[in-house]
Design goal:
By secondary structure, the protein is an all-alpha fold. It has 3 helices and no strands.
């Protein structure tokens, strides 16, 4: 799932910035692509696309810097969900 999640996240970011060549390990905050509105859109995209709820303690910038870190977050939250069921 991690690679699928990474691809979907990258597609989402690239759709906003088609002129940019963003890789899965590039820090989109450091590159200047993320403002506060887009940060919230990222959170909503991840929750809706992957069927997870991001708890407040996970709403840290480090979880959203790269496609790698976002897919790791999705994997953690998905496995937490599976354990609860």
């Amino acid at each position: 799932m991690s690679d699928i999640a990474k691809g979907q996240i990258l597609d989402f970011v690239r759709s906003r910035y088609p002129q940019a060549e963003i890789t899965e390990s590039q820090d989109i905050f450091a590159l200047g692509f993320v403002n506060s509105l887009f940060a919230m859109e990222l959170v909503m995209f991840v929750e809706k696309t992957f069927g997870v709820t991001i708890p407040n303690e996970e709403l840290r910038i480090d979880n959203f810097r790269t496609a790698d870190s976002m897919s790791d977050l999705v994997a953690r939250l998905s496995s937490d969900l599976a354990v609860q069921v």
